[in-house]
Amino acid sequence: MPTSAPGNRPRRAFAWMRRRAAGFTLLELLVVVSIIAIASAGVAFALRDAGGDPLDRDAQRLAALLESARARSRLSGQPVRWVAGEDGFRFEGLPAQTLPEQWLARDTQVAGRGVLVLGPEPVIGPQAVVLTSAGHPDRALRVATDGLRPFTVGPATP
After folding, report:
1. CA separation for the pair 77, 156 (Å, rounded)
2. Cα distances (angstroms) measured from residue 55 to each of 70, 88, 143, 154
3. In CATH, what number does 54-155 get?
4. In degrees rounded to 5, what are phi and psi of residue 151?
5. Domain locations in the chain?
6. Could you give the CA distance from residue 87 to residue 112 in angstroms, rounded to a whole number?
7. Most buried by CB count within 10 Å: which residue of 10, 27, 86, 139?
8. Prediction pTM value
């Protein structure tokens, strides 16, 4: 004998969910494919930038090292000079082995005079150094500061 108590009859309101569980809609598939495409593009750009140009890496690294030496000079109150040599560079005024003294790429060179004074004053004069690559002599990067802002990397202007 059937009763009319709630919960005793089959629910027809959710019958559409049982039919839909068999597969995905076109809209759901498009959303998933677009998410995968965006993620793949992000990974591709990240992998391409990881290699980078050796001259770019050396210039960015030099800017960071110069800022580090500048901060150490201000902290200690002692002047620090960056001097480029034939086989690398050195920081005069800092203890030995404090900062790296070699280029990442063997063919990185300094064009012109390679001496920068990094402190201990909070504001130093405008200074710049131009880096070139023996493998690509037509390309040069300038690591410079106006004396107040940090060292930045940009293209060298002739």
Report:
1. 32
2. 22, 14, 11, 12
3. 3.55.40.10
4. -65, 140
5. 15-51, 54-155
6. 15
7. 139
8. 0.67
